[in-house]
From TrEMBL:
This is Folate-binding protein YgfZ. Residues 1-37 are annotated as: Disordered. Keywords: Transit peptide. Residues 49-167 form the GCVT N-terminal domain. Gene3D superfamilies: Probable tRNA modification gtpase trme, domain 1. One of its GO terms (biological process) is iron-sulfur cluster assembly. Pfam families: GCV_T. Residues 8-23 have a biased composition (Polar residues).
Length: 403
């Protein structure tokens, strides 16, 4: 008897169409996903080449977390930026400070629109000669933006997705996998020049010791497809993308499912790993600084414990309802949902910031039935601002100076 799989994962775990690349451009043939196991179930859309599960999703989660399991992430795109200006150039147009990124150090950065909304998301590791980037959020639009911003800078941008693919693991990748480059997820550590919006560690310089993300250090390996010749899934303890997503959700780690057309970094607690608050200008910086220094993000990411007694879970994208001023009203969206091998049915939701943390959520599943959810606060509803004003930069501000 096999374990149940995550609810409707083969279709509903895919993000909304606005955040994906077209299947013909983004779905790449995985070197380990075809003809390996009669139990392998592939996804749809841009996950059409990605094994969602191998028939036992709950067992696969445990294998991934405890037994050096390997996940085929065939849908991830692999980019390489080369040239002597690659770091300073990307530093000037995205959110993270990477102008002095040391070889082998992993980080992530965001492409924002002028209003601070998230448009692109790159996981980065430099090898001293080139900057490797992994992307699964609007990659084609991100590539178009990057290429338009090169101007006279000495930078070359390559999409190597046809020649390289990605694999995921927890803590470390199997020695038998011929990895070209490894990206180690900085989540949930708070980077230098960054800040946490999470209640569990807000105001601290390091992640709180109880942050669940500390239990599952994600790593992604970039592998040349030609180096995989002779290897199959039978050489590894394989786990499906469902298992990867389940551990991500349990770690409070936002992913592409949490990004919609109005997503802001503060809403998802992404400042801690993807934004440097004291670097030079980039598109969207004013919006980020305004919210951070003067305001509050309009929405917040929350962790949801779902009622599993009915053995039916709502789909990602389901509207979240709660009682507000005496009547039930829409308050947000369930963005990710899974069945975790220890926690049971869980999810992530993006809700209105002023929704009470103790408010019960409900989600319709059809035929008038609903699933109840209890919140566990991730992003704090109200964050205190620094009282002290920044010092005046006398090099650029000549007020009250003798001339």
């Amino acid at each position: 008897m096999t374990d149940p799989v995550s609810p409707k994962s083969a279709t509903s775990d895919s993000p909304s169409p606005e955040n994906t690349d077209t299947p013909t451009e983004a779905a790449r043939r995985s070197s380990l996903s075809r003809g390996l196991s009669s139990t392998a179930v592939l996804g749809s859309g841009d996950l059409a080449e990605t094994p969602i599960h191998y028939g036992a999703s709950l067992r696969e989660q445990r294998v991934l977390e405890e037994k050096d399991g390997l996940v085929d992430l065939a849908h991830l795109r692999v980019l390489r930026l080369s040239g002597p200006d690659r770091l300073t150039w990307l530093n000037s147009i995205t959110t993270q400070k990477i102008d002095n990124l040391a070889p082998g150090v992993s980080t992530e950065t965001l492409v924002l629109d002028p209003n601070g909304r998230i448009e692109g998301w790159l996981r980065l590791v430099d090898d001293g000669e080139a900057l490797w980037a992994i992307s699964d959020l609007q990659t084609d639009a991100t590539l178009d933006f990057l290429r338009k911003m090169v101007f006279m800078m000495r930078v070359e941008i390559e999409d190597l997705s046809d020649d390289y693919q990605c694999f995921g693991a927890i803590t470390s990748l199997p020695e038998a996998l011929p990895v070209t480059r490894t990206w180690s997820d900085p989540w949930p550590h708070i980077g230098s020049g960054s800040a946490s919006y999470a209640q569990i560690d807000i105001g601290q310089e390091v992640a709180g010791t109880d942050h669940p993300g500390l239990e599952t250090p994600f790593v992604i390996g970039i592998v040349k497809r030609s180096d995989l010749q002779g290897l199959t899934a039978k050489n590894f303890d394989m786990a499906g993308f469902d298992a990867w997503e389940a551990l991500r959700i349990a770690a409070w780690r936002p992913g592409r499912n949490e990004i919609d057309h109005k997503a802001l970094v503060g809403e998802l607690d992404l400042l801690r790993t993807a934004v440097h608050l004291a670097k030079g200008c980039y598109r969207g910086q004013e919006a980020v600084a305004r919210v951070h220094n003067l305001g509050q993000p309009p929405r917040r990411l929350t962790f949801v414990h779902l009622d599993g007694s009915g053995h039916i879970a709502p789909d990602p994208g389901t509207e979240a309802l709660a009682e507000v001023r005496g009547s039930e009203r829409p308050v947000g969206t369930l963005t990710s949902v899974t069945v975790h091998w220890e926690l049971g049915p869980i999810g992530l939701a993006v809700v209105k910031r002023n929704l009470a943390p103790e408010a019960q959520l409900s989600f319709e599943i059809g035929d008038g039935e609903r699933v109840i959810g209890a919140q566990e606060t991730i992003v704090v509803p109200m964050r205190e601002h620094e009282r002290a004003l920044p010092e005046r930069n006398k090099d650029v501000d000549a007020r009250s100076q003798k001339r």
